[in-house]
Give the backbone structure.
Amino acid sequence: STQAQQSTQPQQSTQSPQSTPAQQSTQSPQQNQTQKSQAPQAPAQQQASTEQVPAEQAAAEEDTCKCPELDEEHWDKKNLTLEKTFYKTFSPRAFFIPFSFAIDLNRAKQEALGKGYSIPTHPMILDTCGMFKSDLMIEVKGAPADDPKVVDLSGKKIYSKVSKRPWKELKKDFEELKQELGKDPKQVYVYYSSCPKCEANRGVKSVLLAILE
């Protein structure tokens, strides 16, 4: 069938676009079939041009990114406490790579709001960064500690380490973190302080938060 289409295309390209209905009715069935097979190409081209709009909008919104710009001196190699509460949701991974991050984050937001919890204007986003599954956590307020999906870090002793590497190289920061602590921490969360739109232009891209006890 491919050879048939290739052989008819040169004949079609030589036809005048101003053919009368009478002339078109004298075309062979083979030419008519070729035209029918090519007819759906117009919507596909229209769809391709439409798909360019979100990319242009994303570029225009880059200047309005509201991710926090963290001070490296405040967050790097510090012992601190984080008086915050988070709502967690399941986030599947493929060898550490998230493939539904935005969907999972939105699910956490909707579930938390549905339970009557409030979400700050610019909430902290934490991640446990598992190989095949992870807990994706969003900062909330007004959540009781007895909710199994609520993680309260209030009063926890935390060691923080700044990461200037892109997400795919975070493993190197985890290795350095263990060397600095001299042991494996009880739990490590990654604080995403930058999004894909601004990550390349940020010095501090994320912060590793090691729970010491």
Summary: Confidence is low (pLDDT under 50) at residues 1-29, 31-53. Strands lie at 78-81, 85-94, 97-98, 125-127, 133-140, 150-152, 157-163, 187-192, 206-211.
